[in-house]
Structure formats: structure tokens, C-alpha cells
């Protein structure tokens, strides 16, 4: 692909920055939050907007709701989520033929903004301050999704005919665990390479850690604090089990290693128990997060795959062992409820798609590196169900995830558009107009 085309891409982005910012502002304006960890969601407004936008771009648009009875068979499925008025929107841009296909996946849902009065400006009004774009979803991940859409729009504006197909998936319920992308895979969407535009500061990440959300409840015996010896304090028993889990984390930090990813962790996220200071609590519920690796070095320094079930079993065994050493817990054991899971994936760093993504990124950002995403995302279903090579690469900042005053570097947003446009050229390829057969067409 000639340098003149790439220069035209760069110059067009510079010219269109105000329009691109306006598009992102539109996306951020939609309160597309999930509710109750994804059981419900408010994605309808933004998805209706994107349906119309894709149609104006000339795409083949497919809007559909996940069907639990169809996707419950897949690993990573999250149960008890409802999908009335919640649709995935998939746009397919057909190429002229002869090129590789590219799937670009991004989620439109966001987590709630929390106390809106704590924000410097409204979380649903994207504003620029000191070179950063503020608003809920700028980093996670309306910025990345918007940049991918704008890259395709840019190539259409320049009338560059592509050889291969481009599929853009705007999915729901990623923040609830990933059922939206699972439904896309079940519907048959596949490509020769898949990119997720999650925040990486434009590092190329071919692997991520998986995550389990889990809880257990400890039962006790309620009494007045003055006669606490007659009761059993469920909170104190829960602390004993929390300490047991933290010992597992300490062991993992010392023994589990990966070339791109940080060590697995456990986070105690919520403790709920008791009715008042003068009452011995009869129940305590603990919610926790487990972040785990797709593979790890064995004693001979060979990378071996990790079975996610082994992680669950290890946590349950540690709790069983702790319960066995306590007379009350021995007769009142706890069982972990694994209520949400986001599995991990790992694409070989030497795979041609990974190397192409790195090359495309370095055309714009010469210092771009390979790294790993330390949290869950929708890469696993694309990799495990869709059997596609997957990379994660987006303009946002991991440190901004789910924060008050969430923001993204403005220049990274515009650079992401340029990187994605270059990736499309490098991976999908182009055709010369005169090479098209009579009657042959593409969406460009």
C-alpha cells in the first residue's frame, strides 16, 4: 500500500478531528449502563443510534438479542441475564473478494457512573480538558469502538476499495460477563483475525487474564452482644475464610508466572453481614474476584495451559480445609457460588495477525509494544468459540476503568483511528479499481 494513501489517511484525520470528537460525544451521551451485574441493561438507545449510522455507511446490519437457551452451552455463559430491548448490532462491510477478513469487536455497555455529583462534569457529556476526553465510557470502551467505526468511515470517505470483509460488532452485556459476544459467535460471525478495542494505550495485547466473580455465605448464631458467648459470630468466621483465600493468593504470587501477564490475584470486594453493633451476626456474605492466567510456567519453565475449573477447585479446597479446622464451620461448611465468569485467551505472539497488528500500530506509534491485558474482556469467546486469532488494542487507559471522571488521552483517540485504518489496509488488503470484474461490487 503506497505511502500516499497512508498520508491521505493521516491528513484526513487531522482535518476531521472536530467531527470525530462530535461522534464520540454522541456515543458518550447515551446512558447505556448495565444493572445488577448485567442482569438488565440500558443499551437500546446507543444501539438504535449505531444501527442507523451503519446503515448510512452502507453496511449489512444485523440486530439481535442473545437467547439464553442457545448460548448456555458455552463456557463463560452468565446465567439469569434478561435481554428484552437489548440487542447486539453487527455491521458487515463486504469487500470485493480475495482478501482476508477482519472482525472488530467493542462493547457499548458501561458500568454506572456512581455519584454523579462527584464528577467534575456530567458523565454523559464528553468534554475535552487539558488534552483529555472526559465522560463515562471514553476509556471503557466507547472511545475504542468509536475509533474503529470511524476508521471504516474514513476509508469509505477516501474511496479505498478493500479486498476482504470487515465485521464490526457493537455488543451488549460485556460488563456483565460477555453474553453479547458469545451470542455473536453462536450466530456464526467469524473472520481471519479479530481485534477488541479495549483500553491498552495502543499496546498490542494477544492475551488476557480471566476473571471469576464469586461469593459465599457463612452462617452463625444470633444473640445479644452481652451474651456473645452463646452465639456464633458469622463475620468473625468469614474473616477466617477470607484469610485462607488470601493465603492462596500469596502462594500464587510466588509460583504462577506468565511472559506477558501479571500474576493471578484475589480481591475481596464486598462483605455484608450483621444487623447492628449490639447483635452477634447470624450471617455474613463475602463477594470476591479471582483473576487468573491462560497459561503458566511449570517447574521446567514450560508454558502449560491452565484449566479454569482447577482455579475454582483450589479455592473451594482451601475453604474446605479452613472449615475443617473450626468446629462450627466443620458442621456449617460453605460452598462458593461462582456467579460470573470471563474466561481468558492467548494467541501465539508470533501469529501473523499479531505481528501484522504490531506492524500497523508501529506505523503510527513507533514505540508500540506487545503486552498482556490483566483483566477480563470478550477475547475468550472469540478465541475459544470463534476459533479466531485475537488481539486487544485500544486507545484508553486501564487506570481509568470504572473511575469517577473517567477520561482518555485525546491524541490517542485520533491515533487509534489511524492505526485501525492501517490495520485494515495491512490485513484486509485493497484492490485496484481496474482489477474488479464487471458487475463486481463492494461496500466501498
TrEMBL record:
Keywords: Cobalt, Hydrolase, Metal-binding, Zinc
Pfam families, per the entry: M20_dimer (PF07687), Peptidase_M20 (PF01546)
Cofactor: Zn(2+); Co(2+)
GO molecular function, one term: hydrolase activity
All copies of domain Peptidase M20 dimerisation, residue ranges: 207-296
Keyword Plastid appears in the UniProt entry: no
Entry keyword annotation includes Metal-binding: yes
Family: Belongs to the peptidase M20A family.
Protein name per UniProt: ArgE/DapE family deacylase
UniProt organism field: Candidatus Scatavimonas merdigallinarum
